[in-house]
Design brief:
Chain A contains 10 helices and no strands. Chain A is mostly helical. About 9% of the residues of chain A have low confidence. Chain B is α+β, with helices and mostly antiparallel strands. Chain B is 31% helix and 24% strand. In chain B, strands 2, 3, 5, 6, 7 and 8 form a 6-stranded antiparallel β-sheet that branches. Chain B is extended, with a radius of gyration of 26 Å. The chains are: A mainly alpha, B alpha+beta. At the A-B interface, helix 2, helix 3, helix 4, helix 5 and helix 7 of A face helix 1 and helix 2 of B.
């Protein structure tokens, strides 16, 4: 998933080469290509679309500044993801130093309830699932989001998180157990 | 997917329902995010030019500082031992800069080519090639580097970036990988 997909237009590697060659405006191609790509992940991690937008913006600017250090230009997407992931964790670590606030309505709205087909009970369950996710540790939340929202395989997760598959299996197991415990009585 | 919930026992089905409640719809960020990224990039580019122009336009040294710099330059010329430049060192050394010779070696018996890149090479993904393999798969290169701290990695077969196992220390590069750290002392007195 984190290898550049076959698509029309210049490859990421071509764009990077031209940006580094002085065509700064061409970075817009990568901005257009990836702004929304990791927005869902960042929104799940922070519980807020506004914070996700800030993180994606900062990540793309950092990627531009460090473009010469992109080691394998064909896997720019995975490299960018690691920047987004690090930005999320830095952001969350900083935020935790502030007094912990109760989950805002915005955070609860991560699972938007504007689906006209959903009834109130289902929407309530979604809100509580997302609230429980926000209460997990950052690493556990990240593992669950990558696995069950982004649909990554364990080897893909191991690569982008620089962790072993066995360590991730254990992290996922504990995350699932934590989530189940928090949703005792909510999801039966 | 159920087999991946191993360890949950009877809770596996309950976890399936939790997973079913997760929202997988794409998140579309407002176009202002894209515009803000490009505006910041343009701002950085223009401010870099502005800084460069201001540096060129401004008087660079006071008479006292110039005298100190001249004295330091003469001292460096007197104390530095002459070096025979290699191809790599010729690429790396900048005219007038003070550098010291550094030999990097890397063991990669199965590699077909090895290069090194780092801050001293502007993180060029092609890097500076190492010569080799010599006996037992040893690759090496001699560089002329300015005194100070340098971060670098080896590039094996053009794609695999690996830190130097012989380096004194490794640091996180901020992107989930490790960079090796090299400390280059100033030129030795002869």
């Amino acid at each position: 998933m984190y290898v550049e997909p076959m698509s029309e237009g210049p490859t990421d590697a071509d764009v990077i080469a031209r940006v580094l060659g002085g065509d700064t405006e061409l970075f817009r191609v990568l901005v257009d290509r990836y702004t929304d790509e990791f927005a869902r992940y960042a929104k799940y991690m922070t519980g807020s679309e506004d914070e996700a937008a800030d993180i994606i913006q900062e990540s793309l600017v950092r990627a531009y500044r460090s473009l010469r250090r992109c080691r394998d230009r064909a896997t720019f997407k995975g490299w960018l993801f690691r920047i987004v992931s690090n930005q999320c964790k830095t952001h969350l670590a900083t935020r935790r130093r502030r007094p912990v606030e109760p989950l805002s309505g915005e955070a609860a709205d991560v699972a938007s309830v504007d689906d006209p087909g959903a009834d109130a009970d289902a929407a309530d369950v979604r809100r509580k699932v997302h609230q429980a996710l926000q209460e997990l540790s950052t690493d556990q939340r990240e593992a669950l989001v990558l696995k069950y929202v982004e649909g990554l395989s364990l080897p893909e997760m191991a690569e982008i998180l620089s962790a072993s598959v066995s360590a991730l299996k254990m992290r996922l197991l504990r995350a699932r157990q934590e989530l189940l415990a928090k949703l005792q009585g909510v999801v039966t | 997917m159920k087999q991946e919930h191993e360890g949950l026992g009877p809770d596996a089905e309950r976890f399936e329902r939790i997973v079913g409640a997760l929202d997988r719809r794409p998140v579309r960020l407002p176009s202002t995010v894209r515009a803000a990224v490009m505006a910041r990039i343009r701002g950085e580019r223009s401010s870099a030019w502005a800084r460069a122009w201001a540096w060129l336009a401004a008087p660079q040294l006071s008479p006292l500082a110039a005298a100190v710099a001249l004295a330091a330059g003469i001292a460096v010329l007197l104390l530095s031992r002459p070096q025979t430049p290699t191809r790599a060192s010729t690429e790396m050394a900048q005219a007038g800069s003070v550098t010291s010779p550094v030999r990097l070696i890397f063991l990669a018996p199965r590699a077909t080519r090895v290069a090194v890149t780092g801050d001293f090479a502007s993180w060029d993904p092609n890097g500076i090639p190492l010569a080799g393999p010599h006996g037992d798969g040893v690759w090496s290169v001699e560089l002329q580097l300015a005194p100070g701290l340098h971060h670098y990695v080896f590039i094996v077969d053009g794609t695999e970036w690996r830190p130097d196992p012989n380096a004194a220390s490794q640091v996180d590069d901020g992107f989930g990988q490790k960079n090796s750290v090299l400390v280059v002392p100033g030129p030795r007195a002869s």
